[in-house]
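Look over both lines before class:
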Amino acid sequence: MNLRSYPRACVALLCATLLASPLIQPPVNAADLSGSYTWKPVRLGAGGFVTGMVIHPLNPSVRYCRTDVGNAYRWDTTVNEWVPMIVRNGATGIPASVAVAPAEFGVESIAVDPENTSVILMSFPARYNSTGNLIGSVFRSDDGGRNFVKGDLNVKMIPNDLSWRSRGERMGIDPNNSQVVYYGSIQNGLWKSVNGGLNWSQLTAGGAPALTANVAGIRFDRVSATDTTVYAVVADTGVLKSTDGGATWTDISAGSALANSPSYSLVDSEGNLYVTKRGTNTICKMTRAGVWSTLTPTFGSSGNTANNLAVDPFNPQRLFAVGNGSCVSRSLNGGATWTSLGNFLKFANTLGWLPQVTNGTPNAWRSNGGIQFDSSGRLWLPQGNEGVLNVVPSATNTETNTNPLLWKIESKGIEEFVGRDVVIPPGNGDQPIVAMEDGTGFLIENPDTFVSLQAHLADQHINAGTSISVCPNDPNFIVIACADVYNTGSRLDYSGYSTDGGLTWTKFAARAGTPSAKAGIIAVSRRNGWTAGADHLVWYSTGNRAPFWSHDGGQTWTLGVGFTANLTSGVFTDATVGFADPSLKQHTLVADQSVPDKFTLYTSWGGASRLYQSTDGGVNWTAVSGHGLPSKAGNATLLSNPHVAGDYWFVFGKDPTTTSGVWRSTSGGTVYTKLANVDRANTIAIGKGAGTPGAALYSVYIYGRLTSTSEWGVFRSIDEGLTWDRLSYFPAGLVDMPTSMAASQDTFGLVYISYRGNSYVYGRPGAPITVANAGFEAATNWSVWFDSTKSPNPYTRVQDDAAPGGAWRGNIGGYTSYNTTVYQTVTGLTNGNYTLRGLFKSGGGHASIRFIASNYNSAGNNKWTAIPPSSSTYVQVTIPNIPVSNGKVTINAYAVSNTGGWVHFDQIELSKD
């Protein structure tokens, strides 16, 4: 919701009214409330690396894409967006035997049956083995990626392998026999299935790749209706060829320019094999007759290494090659000569914050997962940041270096950020602020639309936001730790602060420690007489540094005293080791929510856990002995309860050992006791209490597993951890590993979760009820009333629009003044309280504009909420606590307006509390 125009004090009151939730009595035993909770993905848009894409040769609308650390997606033509496939929703999705616990995914390869648009194979790691390696298998779907069965392949998989993740597919289905499938593993050679990917055997004879080879690509040449040539690209070796179903293999690249350095490969419609030479702009071409030649595309300065190639299906002489930086080159004569089509990608449209802009321009290096044509002649480019792009090249080839291809962003539904942190400042309308890898941070004004505001702190595209902290008694003051922690070139830090609740951001004037100290965890003290600009901060950076402090809002930083560390850099010099690896999801530095200048720090490593506290704003630190916390909790989270002074909570985080779980301290964070009823806990949050008799002042949320059940999920306690209610098994169907969690201090039950590769989801009480044509994707189910004496000609229609939920939205307007209502009655409801939500925007000039729930009882009563009178972006409007007693409710969008006033509405949602 865009609440910038509202005073902060009013925002808290408004959102408490709009998002009020039902009150739940504390149960004697834990209850399963998952059926009464609604979970949705947060609409940010793309953000990660789409490493590959497969388009069906028979139907270009059947397409799939995969990511390095997140999900794989299928394109859904009914909603015109990408839908994740590694999900578990009830009895559907990936097998229950795989979705037994949160796991780290990413998809290594996808293959489709070229003769059947319903069959897709997908390979991804499903578990860790005893040595910590990701072990995966091939999963088969016969319904277009909606449900999968698991094959018996059991090999190491690394979807995020930096060298080979974007070099094309390492799995393929024989075009002449859909039961024959080949899979090239990253460390275990070449495998074959003769029953559609269910059972596998390794190919070991006849010149097959070595048992430990990295077979990075499988390609087919359909020579005839009965003859198939199979090519296997073997990393650091060459290309092997088989014409007898894999019984024998010949190295066809031996002695060629390609020997020992193959990379991406493809076979065109004429049987020509193209293979890029790794680390160069050379593409080697071999005809079906076995004649090799060399192509050398001309790229711009952003990427002089050929990543891969696309061949026009209607003109095999027209080729497009893409470089590592996503610059594109074109040939019109089969690769004899080339024309550069620009140094950077140029975009035809936007999707929220996309294209990503830094220093006022989207022109920058972009990773990509290849370039390819579909059967209709459209060119596709999966890549980093913006997700999936497409363009139809001009038939007359008018594109040049100064007039490049104009790429359309088509990434709706893809959410692939690595989430690092999330906070919900109190009193800001439940608008969370998130930090993530590759994207710094965002203020999420509405989780259901692409309106989030990026924190513009970095002067480069790739950087990682790792931690956020909110001042306990001034929620407008927020700090973020952000840096180029993965050393993509700059090694710079972009940490900073906001004084207006995340709308605008300023970089800190200085950094904590030497250039090797970056990002990490940051915390801000409760104010005690000082004002903005003099805030007390502590910064626990990466690079094994002790914490630094600042009492001038980040203008200067000084190393805290009490650690054995280098006095200049802050590097630990004894067995106590700090934030060692920036990929760890630590949240182990916290400011006390009730006591100014009190900070607590948990250090994970060094053989035993170490706990430190400072009571003077981080200047001096004292080691806490006998605290009772476990050691080596590298992904731990430590919280100070904002509702109860001296109350601290700790979870071990991601770890397969038996030491995982939840610990609590009621002694100001010095002595902790492990809860006996929680077996695993990856992350934790504290939010508003239920407000019912006997309930605590706060609620506690965890993602984990109770000792009484083997099933993971989201659990909530309203009685200080004595009992836990289940809120979800897999939020929004995701089985990904959570990294952080935040709960609202203003709305009971509202919670956000970040993931290691699927961005963010949020959950709230209320089971969804079907509203016919809720997204206005057809012109039915809604009726219209208007006052003919006021306006004989209002217009109400379903209209084409870049709408938040699809291609259409509802619309009310008039060429004269008007008084009209668009309405629908939902029947067959069980009696009880309901909540009505919808997305609205309007152009102003209205005498009255309302969202109304009516006729929900025998008296025909109604409840309504005013729609913002002028909003250029969609705003979520909510009517809570609708007391249905006659089994129905009428939903109304109502407007009284002067000439020209308009209202747009979409995504109407009714839920039972």
Notes: The longest helix spans residues 8-18. The CA atoms of residues 826 and 889 lie 6 Å apart.
